């Protein structure tokens, strides 16, 4: 496992156990134990992929149509959950059961109906308040900040933690902290293909044209290429030269370089430590803050923070996390602690989210997930075995893939830890879009990522998925690829 301490300092509900709190009441505990046992019995009936019930099809189709009317457009998939699942298997309202390989885009680290998470959520629901805010909160919410700061501070100078209810909001906080630190420096440096969230500012920094279409552009962003594995060390030299040129062109005008250490939406692109360290060091020498966006990576690599595994903590001034933690957080060093008034808000998150997040982080911390031989790495190895075997067995599914410069992409299976990708159908956006719909229909929920080539993306429930289950997932993948090819031929 990682280096996170097993003993979280006492800042939480146990410290109040002398008070007659509902969560400590024996009758309430017994009732919760009954509820959890009952859920466990119900979920144990979910054991394999199933097609929809024919007699529910009309009703569920009507829901989707109404949902599309209410939202103004249909959702990506015709997904309405039944509210029950078993680990990586989820039951939908139409009666179908599917492998959930995306989990709310990396949120449900313990999959569906995990009884430990349900128990934690019930504990949260017993609190006097449903939503937790910045002005009034209970002792138990401090535990998450404590877990995050304790872990982060082992290899970095990060010491403080501001909590909010979305990745985008903590990214806004991070940008504000960086701007205040640099006296309102107007420019931001970001990697090409990055994703940052959906506020007007984050949509502008994020490098996807459709996400900023029609927005009034008022943010000055300088894009840097991500690491280019085919160019190797040349890519690093070129990037450092480009960064130096940017700094020379706009001296003292950059508030930060924001980096995803492993690009998420951009395609699960990875870079070696040497590349990222060279860029971070160049920033440090120029007084440009380094902000690491770990909203997608947090919890999914060999250590809780990807910067730890990469040995980059010494360079990190600001770091944002979200998704699997259930609540989102902006961590910063003492030097970056902003003046009063800069960071606040009404909500932090729901009280149950704090309880579930804390439980998830504790189990991940103490349960043998991290390290080179941890559960995360073992799940990744199982994914690679199945994906590589499919590439060799069915070459017709994997035609040549070319990058934007026309070069042949050799690795059709990639990613790190709990971020997994493979690249069938030549990496074509249209064809992978068709495949994703067929996968959904056949029983695997996945998403795409990348801006060309495009990939199939898995963010599995690494807290509960067993490596052996990858075989069953890839049986559906194989069937779905065969069906996609057959449908394309017609
Ligand atoms: C790297 C990264 N940053 C920021 C965000 C935005 O987080 P949220 O959707 O919770 O606002 C995401 C979400 O996918 C992300 O992957």
Protein described:
There is one protein chain. This protein is of the alpha/beta class. The chain folds into two domains: 131-366, 3-Layer(aba) Sandwich (Aspartate Aminotransferase, domain 2); 375-489, Aspartate Aminotransferase, domain 1 (Alpha-Beta Complex), CATH 3.90.1150. The chain contains 14 helices and 17 strands. Strand 6 (187-191), helix 7 (200-205) and strand 7 (220-224) form a beta-alpha-beta unit. Helix 8 (233-249) packs parallel to helix 9. It is globular. The model is unreliable at 1-12 (pLDDT under 50). Pyridoxal-5'-phosphate binds at residues 105, 166-168, 171, 195-197, 260, 264-265, 293, 295-296, 322.
Gross morphology is globular
CATH homology superfamily name of the largest domain: Type I PLP-dependent aspartate aminotransferase-like (Major domain)
Ions, cofactors and other ligands present here are: pyridoxal-5'-phosphate
Query: Roughly how many Å is the radius of gyration?
Result: 23 Å
Category from helices, strands and their pairing: alpha/beta
In short:
With about 500 residues, this protein is of the alpha/beta class. Helix content is about 40%, strand content about 15%. It has two domains: about 130-365, 3-Layer(aba) Sandwich (Aspartate Aminotransferase, domain 2), CATH 3.40.640; about 375-490, Aspartate Aminotransferase, domain 1 (Alpha-Beta Complex).
Keywords:
490 residues, alpha/beta, Aspartate Aminotransferase, domain 2, Aspartate Aminotransferase, domain 1, 4-stranded mixed β-sheet, 17 strands, 15% strand, binds pyridoxal-5'-phosphate
